[in-house]
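Lecture 7 notes: from sequence to structure.

We start with a single chain of 416 residues. Read the sequence below before looking at the structure.
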Amino acid sequence: MSLSNPWFVIALVGVLGVFHLEFFATLLNLARLGRPVPPDLAEVFPEETREKLGEYIRDSKKVEFTQEVTLLGVLVVFWWSGGFGWLQNWAQSQGHGPVVTGVVVIGLVLLAQTWLSLPFQAWDTFGVEARHGFNKTTIGTFINDHFKGLALMALLGIPVAAALVWFFETQAWAALYAWLFLAGFTLLMTWLSPRVIMPVFLKFRPMEEGELKDAIFALARKLDFPVAEVSVVDGSRRSTKANAFFAGFGKTRRIALYDTLLESHGKEEIVAILAHEIGHNKCRHVPVMMTLNLLEMALMLGLLGWVLKSPGFFAAFGVQGTPVGMGLVLFGMIYKPLGVLTGLLGLAMSRKHEFEADAYAREAVGSHQPLTNGLKKLSHDHLAHPSPHPLTVWLHYSHPPLAERLAALQGNPRAV
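Now the structure, written as tokens:
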């Protein structure tokens, strides 16, 4: 490891650069909490609510920043003390082939990251979220979720990691084969997740017959959107925050509504929120975003295939040779800055799609008012930032800030 190695410099600048960019964006965003709320949001964020959300956002960022500093410190110490080289040598000494060795290395690094992050997740859940009235998760549920997550990570992650290591160890067209494999796996998980994975953590029950269910199916028929079932999710077992989502393809689409959404929103608002989600489908946002993700994946795997052939890249981390499994771990460090740039495009496209889905919902229900009311309630109840800084929006927001969405819904788009 030396400054004369360009890979070392790239990795160092990437790790520290992204950290400082995020820190700078956080400071700018926190500073905006003291700004007056836009006039059209005064009723959503009265003074008492602004004080609460300011405390909530600061507390959340305190946990986030402490976690990032801790993980960065552990990474730098492990890196500069030769930890990656030691881990690779130990894994190879176990006498297994390159594929098993690579999977072991990847698994141990991910497990270490997971367990290092666990205390901060607990702090956030039982400290910040509980203090501000959001948390409903018990310690038992938290522990069960953790071990279920580890089991799923092993069940799904080990085969994927083994396949990727095998491709790059043995195949001349490894990047192409890996891309085809991951594309297929992504589509499979899109179908499996709501049917197999999410029920591991959440309980789904059919919505009871009644006025709301009739209104939902009436909306689906009006918009020619086939729905197989409507389910209620026990989100209140973990949080007071509300949510809703669609899952499935073709005639097997499922609508899932969190029980917290049903408790805090009226029928017209829920129907408008679902019309917004249907708008994403009708405007073909899902295939557009999937195409963008697949293109980024192709770029990432192409760069990975090139990097894995460079002994200098591995030497920058104190690793001898070109072991693929370790290379997959280390590549994530130097890909961060480029990942931020490609992420900007995806987030900008997502925000554009939200405006389009909002407009679709407005036309579908005949008025902007139901969705306007629903968005106001969601932002108020979730203690969302009323005036986030543009840099934070560019870096992290998949949805436009509330003021921009309301202005566009009411036919008066403007910058905030």
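The radius of gyration is 23 Å. Keep this in mind for problem set 3.
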